[in-house]
Amino acid sequence: MAVVLGPNRYGKAETRVVRVTRDGEVHHLKDCNVGVSLSGAMEEVHRRGDNAAVLPTDSQKNTVYAFAKKHGIGEIEEFALLLARHFVGSQPTIHHARVAVEEYGWERRGPHSFARSGGEVRTCVVHHDRDGATTVVSGLRDLVLLNSTGSEFHGFAKDEYTTLPPATDRVLATAVTARWRHLLPAGEESRDYAESYRQARRCLLDAFAGTYSLSLQQTLFAMGERVLRERPEICEVRLELPNKHHFLVDLAPFGLDNDNEVYFAADRPYGLIEGTVLHDDATPAGAAWD
Amino acid sequence: MAVVLGPNRYGKAETRVVRVTRDGEVHHLKDCNVGVSLSGAMEEVHRRGDNAAVLPTDSQKNTVYAFAKKHGIGEIEEFALLLARHFVGSQPTIHHARVAVEEYGWERRGPHSFARSGGEVRTCVVHHDRDGATTVVSGLRDLVLLNSTGSEFHGFAKDEYTTLPPATDRVLATAVTARWRHLLPAGEESRDYAESYRQARRCLLDAFAGTYSLSLQQTLFAMGERVLRERPEICEVRLELPNKHHFLVDLAPFGLDNDNEVYFAADRPYGLIEGTVLHDDATPAGAAWD
Amino acid sequence: MAVVLGPNRYGKAETRVVRVTRDGEVHHLKDCNVGVSLSGAMEEVHRRGDNAAVLPTDSQKNTVYAFAKKHGIGEIEEFALLLARHFVGSQPTIHHARVAVEEYGWERRGPHSFARSGGEVRTCVVHHDRDGATTVVSGLRDLVLLNSTGSEFHGFAKDEYTTLPPATDRVLATAVTARWRHLLPAGEESRDYAESYRQARRCLLDAFAGTYSLSLQQTLFAMGERVLRERPEICEVRLELPNKHHFLVDLAPFGLDNDNEVYFAADRPYGLIEGTVLHDDATPAGAAWD
Amino acid sequence: MAVVLGPNRYGKAETRVVRVTRDGEVHHLKDCNVGVSLSGAMEEVHRRGDNAAVLPTDSQKNTVYAFAKKHGIGEIEEFALLLARHFVGSQPTIHHARVAVEEYGWERRGPHSFARSGGEVRTCVVHHDRDGATTVVSGLRDLVLLNSTGSEFHGFAKDEYTTLPPATDRVLATAVTARWRHLLPAGEESRDYAESYRQARRCLLDAFAGTYSLSLQQTLFAMGERVLRERPEICEVRLELPNKHHFLVDLAPFGLDNDNEVYFAADRPYGLIEGTVLHDDATPAGAAWD
């Protein structure tokens, strides 16, 4: 019985890079957080501390900054692809690269003045293998949505610990984490990622607002399905939807009714609904979700 | 030498209340976090645990919900005033109330569907005394602003620990916490707080974007001054401006120049500039800033 | 091309339960955070909002509390196993349960008085399937360790973006997230989890302190290997070790040397080393790491 | 009506410094977070961006590191005093310095190996004026305490919004933020701050555990009083005690009683009790609490 090394990766996390592009008076801003994870011939470093195969995480950080200068930061998927291909292509000991990028939005307030948008963060995770396998997952997190009606929850299973009354009109609120996998025929990794993001985001928003909901699971499926039906470049959607409970406050002790008007927004515990919606003929995901 | 009780207060913090108002199909949403702090005849409870003077914090929470139902939540300053007057007016042992409200913004996505705005949070703190003294401070926090040029920093004092080179073109970024005190002639606490907030916020944004800055202190003063000059209902502005440093990355080792294009957005340490701008004849602040 | 439902689960996250056991004057305290995730016959709820198969997350929360009363909370692995078996065993539509528990430590300060330990959190994740497959992963997170010497980093790969100088004496610091999978012969899920945890934790601490480190990967492997060599009940260890960089401050401009005495503790970016160490004949992990 | 500059200060916040002292094989560690705030002749920089009076915050950071080397970091109060005197003494435009230090504890695990203690953080805030006025406030935060019995709450005031039943046996839990002001006869700022801290902390812990509590206010007063009675070098104590509510779970629907055994640890809202306990002849606090 021997002790062996299993799956492993290493890299530089959370390199915060802000790229300014000057177009005369008018500046443009890209504000990103980049995480690199590399794997490959790493037996020796784990076993004996021999670093010959290890490109320092410091060099990875430097590469992020140098690439931001040389190539600019276009869509985050493109920037991640550039970086992933670079690490695998230039270091023989690196067989696989995972690059994750988050982008923070800014609103223009003047030719070179900006206010951070707050709200959701755009995300992507790219994998690239020396065998050429490439996956691109785009997404967003922290998109907080709420419907103040049009949501019910009843007809559920009951056991001896069930006390929840059925609800025929409730608030439905969630903080969306959504990730969607791009259909990527070999050699066709390039596409209009900006437009794809805008449209996928719109699908999520529209499906949440437009679904008369009998359960958060139903809403989740509707959100994923909407993306898949409208965006042929996307083959799989994964959603994590915490149920941000809004409990109706009992005002009866004060002689007041509460006809779905006053809610307590609770923190913990919360329901958590996680699900995948995909095309039945979606290509295998490979490392896409790792 | 005796041990005595000094300044003290107690209350319920962070009561999260969401108020829905139905206008037929169209719903309106107010999402707030309310903190109540009361003080008064509290010697006995501290000395002997005699709670006769203590209105439970649980009752304070209930009051927030009941008032949200009975009065709705209009502008947060008005809601805070209602609550503060109620506690002082109804409990003889309560001599002073401080009510703080934060409001989270939502954007409409449908007749009863919303997406949380993210970004800054609107705030207020109201004090009300049984002698009738009332103060109202409005404000915001977490408004993140950045100018990608139009900022210098040089000509500063130097000592033996100074290594900072002068900067003639730098990124200036901050996360604004601003609070402004309303001029409140007795009995005139009511005003258009919504419009006042919108305009004060605009002044802050415009002054930040429009000030060619030789130091963050100068920008701070300009922001406060702009509010005071344009808004006669406001007599004092307090600002906390962390200097969110954006350091130019040294790309020379890679044969690249960096003409103010690629920045590292640092977390810690950070400069912190705090200042007050006020009218020379501003009425005394009383408890306003406590 | 049809849209189908892929992997999914739902449940109640972060049920905070505190269990007091009274032994006369002396009280005992267990403070936990429980997350339940169930999966099974969930096609209908996603497709049509038919909740007949859905045991409400509210009932799951109630079950956590009722079980804390009925069975007490012994070792968190045992409590998680009880819950997981209950959900799968009592609801025909639930085919699989994942129960995660975090435990917060408290130090005794009196017969019924306690101070929270702070520092690391003990964790476990249990999976149970209606086919009888059961996995138990124990662990901890937020264990922050530092060696002020006995760490080097050199001999690494270099590319055009490498500027890092070799280090022959550096601070090595990390915040350990460790999880270890128990070898569980069918029907033998019960063991002394308390002692197993104490010993696994000791192995991690000892290996970190006792390894002269040429790279954080080497330290990671040594930590995992130590657990496996000393604890036959454990067959796989997964570690996530952020490299909490401590940079030597350049004091030369002030006429001072800095012989590894004064460090800047950086936040971001940071190296992140993730790895698995396991027995070559470890049983398949199944759902253990999901 | 002119616009004038009111109270202001500026400085470098959150300089993270780790100081290693080598005693042969055995190393010692001090891990601190230092915040500097300076004020003085700052009219010009606010009005016109003239930085002649402004010692850069970068120089302040450098000073922290250089002083850590030159003087070591003894007790944090001493380190803060050194820094505060330095800034006021060396820069004619700086009339007042406030230095705040937090210290993170580490437990020894080997001659040069450490594990971070977690739990509470030791704090201090020092003010020094060019007139010689000096104040020292020591303290701690995030000390989480819980009594599982020995706490009641009843006999409180009631109004129309009061529904809380009286409690004769409840859990009392809080996260202590405590700050205490030292009695500092001129020129006698030096004392055994380590021992003073240990003893003050012990007083807080003992008083919390040892007070049969009829209200959190009573416990607060007892904690402050204990410090004052046992520590003649301390003249004022300020405490912020959030009431971390532990609500008894209603298990009756499941046919179970709950005799103070199973609690839900709630997050928000929470009671917040703030109070000051001081000697009636305490010297004026000056800027101590700013």
From TrEMBL, chains A, B, C, D:
Catalyzes the oxidation of uric acid to 5-hydroxyisourate, which is further processed to form (S)-allantoin. The gene is pucL. Belongs to the uricase family. It comes from the Bacteria. This is Uricase. NCBIfam families: urate_oxi. Keywords: Oxidoreductase, Purine metabolism. Its EC number is 1.7.3.3. It catalyses: urate + O2 + H2O = 5-hydroxyisourate + H2O2. Pfam families: Uricase (PF01014). SUPFAM superfamilies: Tetrahydrobiopterin biosynthesis enzymes-like. InterPro entries: Uricase. It comes from Sphaerisporangium rhizosphaerae. Pathway: Purine metabolism; urate degradation; (S)-allantoin from urate: step 1/3.
